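Ticket #4471: structure output looks truncated?

Reporter: J.K.
Steps to reproduce: submitted the chain below (299 residues) through the standard prediction queue, then opened the result file.
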Amino acid sequence: MYGLWVVAMQIPLESDLMRSFLAVADTGSVTAAAGRLLRTQSAVSLQIKRLEEVLGQPLFDRLARGVALTPRGEQLLPYARRVVSLLDEASIALREKPLTGPVRVGIPDEYSGTVLPRALAAFDERHEGLQVTVRCDHSEGQMRALENDELDLAVIYDWSYVQDGEILCIDPTVWVTSMTHAQHLRRPVPVGLYFRSDWCRDFAEASLNKQGIDWRAAWTCDLAAGFRVAVQNGLAIAPLSRSTIPAGCRELTAQDGFPIVDSARVVLRRNPRGTSPAIEGMADMLREAFRPLAEANRM
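Returned output as attached by the reporter:
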């Protein structure tokens, strides 16, 4: 490890090399990476070779079909992501015109601890004159707030595929269990449920009943954060968006006897009364924040 970073200190790592490395790592193929980067395959291959020479370490194992990261490549991956992300963030911050004025945005509780906090904080920091107000609420509450002119933008779940708006991604709701406690093996199965929720009755409970699973309500709450606490501490299994499964937990699959609860669309809805540069800037930020989830579900 020491030798790798000594070499890196002697010869600066170029951002283009890091971008090529990430593209190959993410796609598992030099050819696919070249298409993503709009470069020739030979150019990308030369950049990877150059990066390996700079570090004095092989970063990829060449396979019959594509490539796979070596242990050194795995070690470099999180650093590369941070470097490229910071460069992109700096570029945007210095090039874009600062936005001013109020913008009111609603987000689901499910994403309040994962996808959106860093993006919202970075957006707010780039635009000192912006007055961002965030409402963390369920989809029904957000839609009422839009109708009452209390929000400009709302990120909602559309599990019945009836809501209008811009689709940001599809993020299925799945049953989640702790890998340590394995609550799903108990009978009756302890389950976390939302109280006063039509969705929970029509989707979560219905999915268990359809499979003939013997279950009991062991944890009730009104926030997804409460479900994560219950699952991680071995108190219940719970329905969570696939992208928000906490550390130490896993999705329960059909092989475990648990079906997907729903395949909800994550939709961006707008207040029809008007827009502003600040609102459009927030909409762009939300698209970028959810883009990795959209791309992951297409793979």
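Triage note (M.O.): checked the attachment and the full token line is present. The radius of gyration is 22 Å.
Status: closed, working as intended.
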